[in-house]
Specification:
Layout: H1 11-24, H2 34-42, E1 49-53, H3 67-76, E2 79-81, H4 91-102, E3 109-110, H5 116-122, H6 132-136, H7 138-143, H8 146-154, E4 166-170, E5 175-180, H9 181-187, H10 195-207, E6 219-221, H11 231-235, E7 241-242, E8 245-246, E9 248-251, E10 254-257, H12 262-276, H13 289-297, E11 301-307, H14 311-322, E12 328-330, E13 343-345, E14 348-355, H15 361-374, H16 380-385, E15 392-395, E16 398-401, H17 416-419, E17 420-421, H18 423-432, H19 439-452, E18 456-458, H20 473-476, H21 479-490, H22 497-524
Parallel strand pairs: 1-2, 1-3, 4-17, 6-11, 13-18
Antiparallel strand pairs: 3-14, 4-14, 5-11, 5-12, 7-8, 9-10, 15-16
Helix pairs in contact: 1-4, 12-21, 14-19, 18-19, 21-22
Length: about 525
């Protein structure tokens, strides 16, 4: 599976594992004697606070007694403390997480990154959930399909077929290229069908001032650092890609890493030409999330890649910043002769939660209680809506979501509806919680979510564990790929250097990783 392939652990992470192993006692978090269980029952009404870490892209933290703390306490029966940790694509989050673990301050429940859960499981630092979930979190246990739990067991880094993490499951394609349909109308061009059409559209976006401000400031398309978040440019060549991270799929009938395929070579050659011709944002390989989002929300980007289901946030922010209501539509995967394009759909998401292995039974039982109640679908609407007056308001007796506001809104870190997600649920939730003045954006996002399914394809490597990279951190964190892809796109390397990259990749561990990946695929596909 993906794990965003940035490396198993930093130096701080190695220290973290050592520190945690020493304190955990490798108890595997077995719930103690019957007397301790009875004690938990007797104290069922006692509110226990637990520390939760997850994605936060700039919202306020959850502190004891805050409004979202009180909502979670009321709905889930557990106090949730969620400190602010800068996300920055997950890089800063992982660094801070490693430091907390090294300091013997591991959160009670957290999102693992880059395969960190493998080393934590091997060292007894996170709980063995195999027997705990069916007994203490049945709502969660039943929400994840059996075949997904089977993959989790097959991926157990200890080799014992145990469960150490909670996966995410998505039954629809979330990602797609997006394009400003209103800009297409302004430049008098139809939705592009072929790559040639798409290039003509980008040229028109560059030259014809579609945002109408009289400045030559349009960015036809672009992405972020490390050639990430521009998957739409790779998708047309059939390159399996997830948020800019090359994936494993079948090429010539064999499971292969998409970064070393002829498909990737052709895609990089095309993207390098876009860069040379001024059709790709010149700062693409410097943009972090905030910078690139700012360009999209500032009405400068004509085409970009993201979750189709969050495109309404970009629409509303663009309207707020420019006064123009944009029409962000799904970009059909442009046709390229000799290639079959698609947007990558990963049904089996990377690990969403792991639980600290602790001897503190109150903390452990509170964490399991939180998971059980969080995955009770009766609570999903309340978790989605958040705090009245902060995340939503009431209009004519109907709850409606308020516009995105990071300066005032606490982070809705508990979002099971996005971790075990269905298309019908999400589109219906969008409709019933939107105010009339936001329906223009909600109608578009629901249209986009449906449209994206036409181009979504699951990949053969879906669910592959990060353990295939054990011993090869540079392969896992894409070091060589990022170096060569970046220099080829910038024109510093000719495309012929791609063959050198493939050779180096294979010799530096790629051959062994490929062998492991194919062995895993043969095992899970029996």
């Amino acid at each position: 599976m993906d794990f965003k392939k940035m490396g198993l652990l930093s130096a701080a992470g190695v220290l973290a594992i050592t520190a945690v192993t020493g304190c955990s006692g490798n108890t595997n978090s077995s719930v103690g004697s019957s007397s301790s269980t009875q004690n938990q029952t007797a104290n069922a009404d006692e509110i226990v606070d637990i520390e939760v870490w997850g994605t936060n892209i700039g919202y306020k933290p959850i502190t004891k007694g805050s409004k979202l703390y009180e909502l979670y306490k009321e709905k889930l029966g557990v106090g949730v403390i969620h400190p602010y940790v800068e996300w920055n694509g997950g890089t800063n989050y992982l660094n801070q997480l490693n430091l907390k673990i090294a300091a013997n301050e591991m959160p009670d429940l957290f999102l693992p990154k880059e395969g960190i859960e493998n080393s934590l499981a091997k060292n007894g630092a996170i709980a063995d959930l195999t027997d705990l979930l069916p007994k203490y979190a049945p709502n969660l246990w039943q929400a994840v399909p059996k075949e997904m739990w089977d993959i989790v067991k097959a991926n157990d880094p200890t080799g014992q077929g145990r469960i150490y993490y909670i996966p995410g499951v998505v039954d629809y394609g979330r990602y797609a290229g997006m394009i400003r349909k209103d800009w297409l109308d302004k430049v008098g061009l139809p939705m592009p069908k072929t790559q040639e059409d798409y290039v003509k559209v980008l040229e028109a976006f560059r030259d014809k001032d579609p945002n109408g401000n009289g400045q030559k400031d349009e960015l036809p398309t672009g992405g972020r650092q490390e050639a990430r978040w521009m998957d739409h440019l790779f998708a047309m060549y059939g390159v399996a890609m997830f948020e800019g991270n090359p994936q494993w799929d079948l090429y010539d009938g064999k499971l292969s890493y998409s970064a070393v395929t002829p498909n990737m070579k052709a895609a990089l050659e095309f993207i390098a030409k876009l860069y040379k011709d001024g059709l790709l944002d010149k700062e693409t390989l410097l943009n972090d999330k905030a910078k690139w989002d700012g360009k999209v929300n500032g009405g400068r980007a004509g085409s970009f890649f993201h979750w189709a289901e969050t495109s309404n946030l970009y629409m509303e922010n663009t309207f707020k910043n420019t006064g123009v209501k944009p029409d962000f539509a799904v970009l059909p995967v442009p046709e390229v002769p000799g290639f079959k394009g698609f947007y990558t759909w990963k049904r089996f998401l990377e690990p969403q939660w792991v639980v600290k292995n602790t001897k503190d039974q109150k903390k452990l039982m509170a964490t399991l209680k939180l998971l059980n109640n969080m995955y009770d679908k009766k609570n999903w609407n309340a978790l989605f809506l958040g705090v009245e007056g902060m995340h939503h308001t009431m209009k004519d007796g109907k709850p409606v979501k308020l516009p995105d506001d990071k300066s005032s809104q606490e982070n809705l870190v508990l979002d099971p509806y996005s971790k075990i997600s269905t298309l019908d649920f999400m589109t219906e939730l969008n409709k019933i919680t939107a105010s009339e003045d936001r329906m223009w954006a909600v109608d578009q996002v629901n249209r986009n979510m449906q449209e994206a399914q036409k181009y979504a394809k699951t990949i053969a490597g879906d669910g592959m564990p990060a353990s295939v990279y054990d011993g090869f951190p540079d392969i896992n964190n894409r070091t060589l790929y990022v170096e060569y892809a970046t220099k080829i796109i910038l024109g510093q390397y000719p495309i012929s250097k791609f063959d050198e990259f493939v050779d180096k990749w294979n010799k530096s561990g790629g051959e062994e990783v490929t062998k492991r990946a194919r062995e895993w695929y043969a095992k899970v596909k029996k």
